[in-house]
Amino acid sequence: MHDTEPAFDARIAVRPAVLADGRELIYFDDADSSLPPERAIDARTLDPRPANAHMRQDALTGEWVSIAAARQNRVFLPPAHLDPLAPQTAENPSEIPSVYDVAVFENRSPSFGPDLADADASPAETLAELRRVGLERTRTSVGRCEVVCFSPEHEGSFGSLSRSRARTVIEAWAHRTAALSAMPGVEQVFPFENRGREIGVTLPHPHGQIYSYPYVTPRTERLLAAIDDYGPGLMADLLERERDGPRVLVSGEHWTAFVPFAARWPIEIHLLPHRHVPDFAATTLAERDELAGLYLRLLRGVDRLYDTPTPYIAAWHQAPVHEHRDEVRLMLQLTSPRRAADKLKYLAGSEAAMGAWIGDVTPEAAAEALRRAIAEADGLAHETAPTPTEPTPTEPEGRSA
Q1: Domain Galactose-1-phosphate uridyl transferase C-terminal, which positions (predicted)?
Q2: Catalytic residue among 207, 254, 270, 276
Q3: Which of the four, 7, 169, 231, 292, has the lowest number of CB atoms within 10 Å?
């Protein structure tokens, strides 16, 4: 739900298509793309999509658990020539028929969807019903789950993208947030990237996902409770306090990244926009342009902490679709369990069972290490940048490099 129409970047072409089993596929072409507008048809013969999963409520917490047994059959670490997210070839009947810059498609075995709720259902009544606690309550796991392919390359992550490609992915997040938020029964939209086998990644292909939930997630429900206690300015006040503090990592005209005061993980970074923005669809083109470069700097800094790539979860928290949109601000929460070059933080008794966290590193020490790593990554990028042989033309205002 959006009070104003989202602004989209006309330089980034959006090309809708359909997969052989009826799933939606959307190509997003870089602003400087060399790809032709035509796209191949998906000529595969595919089995029918599995039935919707179902949700069960945990009566002790009120939380909903989606039981999606079809996910047991998903691909696990395939060889490069059978990468399901690479462009199709005669030997590889993958999910994407054409060469692409960025591609988004419906997950074949989703945790939520493909069915949607009744379009006539009242969001307020639906949320109130879902928040009620009872014994052995079940619901259909309506919603939508999408895969966001950052690149046609077999290996990589968001941090390995060019700035132009990073900007295209951010534009895709904005487009899909707007589209998914308008679907019946969707209450929250969540873009994220899992990176590294230690996190449980089953495909090395650079990609993320977008989950569209039929309820407000437990993490956000706890945030709403904190806002109710503190007041509607909680996230704005928190950002202002952090911007003047010792844990800031990078800051621009529109965004600031910092290690939070009560970080749970050995590596934890929060990134917020300076003005109130409930989700990606509400960001301006200038905010997305700056984010492309700033986010790449953060991720490349995280990878400079150690000699090998760092596993992480990059979680983009957005406001619920139908409530608290003036209070909940778009926020990145990037977390990694890596506490040393060869050590991981495992969630054992206190954290996993009781939700009572014990930090292994002070947030201030983590911030200092991250600032050094970001500076090293910035220096490396400067050293490896090509030297122009002639004056560089002036870019239009807001243009990604």
Answers
A1: 234-374
A2: 207
A3: 231
What is the count of structural domains for the chain? 2
Is residue 171 located within the same domain as residue 220? Answer: no
pLDDT-flagged residues of the chain (< 50): 389-401
Parent domain of 91: 7-187+197-210
Q: Is 270 a catalytic residue?
A: no
- Per residue in 303-319, pLDDT (tens digit) is 999 999 999 999 999 99
Q: What is the pLDDT of residue 382?
A: 73
Tell me, what's the pLDDT at 395?
Answer: 36
User: pTM for this structure?
Assistant: 0.93
